[in-house]
Amino acid sequence: MIIKLDSVKNKLYSPNEVAKILNVTRRTIYRWLGEGVIKPETKTKTGRYLFSREEIYKFVYPRGRKKSRKSPTEETSLGKIYPKYERFI
How far apart are CA 72 and CA 69, in angstroms? Predict the structure, then answer.
C-alpha cells in the first residue's frame, strides 16, 4: 500500500511507517540510515529512530518542493490565450 505524500501529517514516524510512505522495505530505511541518505528527527533512549514529515520531504525533494502551477484555465480564460477560438468557449 502506497501512502500519498500529501497525506503525511506533522508527527513523528517509525521506520515501518516511513517504509510504507516511500514504498520500500524497512531494511532499506535502516540501510539508508547507515549510509546517511536519510536522517532521523530523533533517536529515543531505547534506540528507536523517529522521522518527521519535514525529513521525509527533504529526502523525497532534495532540492525543495516546487509549488504547483496553475493551469491556463485557472489563470486566465482560454479566450485570452487562444483569441480566435473565443467564440467556441
Answer: 9
Distance, CA of 80 to CA of 25 (rounded, Å): 50
Model pTM score: 0.61
User: pLDDT tens digits for 37-80?
Assistant: 899 999 999 999 999 988 888 888 877 666 555 544 444 455 55
> No. of H helices and E strands in the chain?
5, 2
Provide CATH code, domain 7-63: 1.10.1660.10
Helix (H, G, I), strand (E, B) or coil at 43: strand
Q: How far apart are CA 37 and CA 73, in angstroms?
A: 40
